């Protein structure tokens, strides 16, 4: 089974387009998978059709039928919930796990979130994150859904603390959603970082970073919502795909870019890289 290519629906956010538009455009461009963004409650812009976010108060089977009609599948759900805020993350991730099981998404992607002002030190932070994980991972195990940590904040973009996080709670459903762009912007070598966690990766955010953004932000931030078209930036995609292939990865490269034009360029480029590295 080969690696597949998907797309995070952020590519239609700046065009003020809804979920239905995004999945139809993804199918038109030749993507096999999409990665919806889900949230608790309601969003006025989404309700009005100007934003792709899905409310988990809606019926997931309704949206699954839309995907089935277009021949699309979910690679995962973007359900970022701050592990350091258990009052938010526990109910949010619990609902996302159940939603993922119904819509057919094998992975729920999240991160540790910005560190709240009331957490005094790393030991307290890790204790709180362990509590959150102990609450949600049994639910993930019952439903057969992976919880995948994404490099995105202060602990997940450092290899030592990411590895420490991954050992907080032993569970076969606790894995990694590797984000190439966030990893790079945080100051890491994405290829070497990936080698250290490749055996835990179940989902990949294929995010390239432009030279301009690299100059402006590298070493100053821990992440970014979207990147440029894959192949137009600084990420060594041939090396990334080779590391994944050597690790036996057979999942999805979920493109994270900001426009439809970038989405079209990204799928063409990644297909050539996957073919080249066979």
Structural category is alpha/beta
Helix content: 40-55%
Assembly annotation: single chain
Beta-strand proportion: 15-25%
CATH topology: TIM Barrel
What summary fits the major beta sheet? 9 strands, parallel
Q: Please give the domain count.
A: 1
What low-confidence regions span 5 or more consecutive residues with pLDDT below 50?
Answer: none
Average pLDDT: 97
Annotated CATH architecture: Alpha-Beta Barrel
The helix count comes to: 11
Outline the structure in words.
This protein has 278 residues and is α/β, with parallel strands linked by helices. It has a single domain (4-276), classed as Divalent-metal-dependent TIM barrel enzymes (TIM Barrel, Alpha-Beta Barrel), CATH 3.20.20.150. It has eleven helices and eleven strands. It has helices spanning 19-29, 44-47, 60-70, 86-103, 122-143, 159-166, 180-185, 190-197, 211-217, 237-246, 260-276, and strands at residues 4-8, 33-35, 38-39, 54-55, 73-74, 77-82, 107-111, 146-149, 174-179, 201-206, 252-255. Strands 5-2-1-11-10-9-8-7-6 form a nine-stranded parallel β-sheet. Strand 6 (77-82), helix 4 (86-103) and strand 7 form a beta-alpha-beta unit. Helix 4 (86-103) runs parallel beside helix 5 and helix 8 packs parallel to helix 10 (237-246). The radius of gyration is 17 Å and the shape is globular. It starts with a strand and ends with a helix.
TL;DR?
It is globular, with a radius of gyration of 17 Å. It is 44% helix and 16% strand. It is of the alpha/beta class and 278 residues long.
Helices, strands, pairings?
Blueprint: E1 4-8, H1 19-29, E2 33-35, E3 38-39, H2 44-47, E4 54-55, H3 60-70, E5 73-74, E6 77-82, H4 86-103, E7 107-111, H5 122-143, E8 146-149, H6 159-166, E9 174-179, H7 180-185, H8 190-197, E10 201-206, H9 211-217, H10 237-246, E11 252-255, H11 260-276
Parallel strand pairs: 1-2, 1-11, 2-5, 3-4, 6-7, 7-8, 8-9, 9-10, 10-11
Helix pairs in contact: 3-4, 4-5, 8-10
